Amino acid sequence: MGPWHPQPVINRRWIRDSVLQDRPVRSDDKAGPEVCFANCEAPVRGRSKRWSKLLVGLLAFACVLTDPTAGLLARVAADEPEILDTPRRRFEFGSSNRRDNGEMFKLVRPLVAEVGNSVVQIVSDGTPVCLGTVVSADGYVLTKRSELSADPIRVRLPDARLLPARVAAIRRESDLALLQVESDQLQLRPVEFADDDNLAIGSFLVSVGRGGNPIGLGAVSAKARTISHQGRLGMFLRDEQGQATVERVWPLGGAAEAGVKQGDRILAIDGRSEPNRSRVIESLRERFPGEIVRLTINREGATLDLVARVQDFGLMQESENDVKVNGPRSVRLSGFERAMQHDTVLNPDECGGPLVDTSGRVVGMNIARAGRVVSYALPASLVRSAVESMLLEARDLSAAENE
Question: For residue 184, what are the domain limits?
């Protein structure tokens, strides 16, 4: 590995290997992080103005000696030279300090243009619900399973065609569904997932939408880990004459939305008889948030079938202010085998697409919008392994059906 070089100053910003900063360090800074030559962060609290000025001067001098068009800037210059100021090779950023402003999107567009040809839109029951990532040239697309709430399922391709699709395989533990687009005339380009997805905290990321457009910019805020879940229907049970009986219904839970009432007796879940309260609770806790549960109940002597959606218990406890602050979130935002956390602001229907680093590598797939500054992505290594097994399963099933 060669020596570290400071990244180019872009108006009032730096683009470093891992962090986009709103402005460079100033001599009057008294607190917060300061870049050091070991590509690390060092505290500057109490640092004298003299040393701060000296450090800034050294960085500025190093920028003059190094090539500011290396890496990301060289790629942008090759693809969109008109956005560079030729004499000084500087970017013109406008007045906005937001990292997701139009000029920043223009800057990163060359990174994601090719990957964008592998992104599709998933339409369920006539409504766009999420994105999908093409994983095979013969019509297989990977997407977010919990958003597929109803048939029919259609896929809007990069060329704008809207074609029917069916679910070919699923992986509940990662909320993945493999769709097969039903058409004999497909010209799809599968995405290539990176071999190495061990990203450092602060690594810059670009979320890709259909048509090769960036839809969000962010940075890694936590490395890949298991995201536990608390899937609940929202009903309190007691044992009565050997049967699970509803004692109380949580007003904002899936049970209330399905029409469950106090005094109902649970006879079966998804057609499987459940004899008592503990068995009912055990069965329901196997379900992930966003999954559909079919309840068979006895109400005053009549047998009824109700359909309920499991919800995340954390969401059920939120205040109205919490909901406003966090904004719209995914139906399933927890319960992932392994996911990395980043701070990109995404809409729930923008999950399911690829996540790209500053080298243009696909390092993951967005899987959930979980909070105001929390989005989750499945790392490339996990997605690649899942795709291999799901494709094998789907093709074996297709071959058996055609025999």
Answer: 101-228+335-403
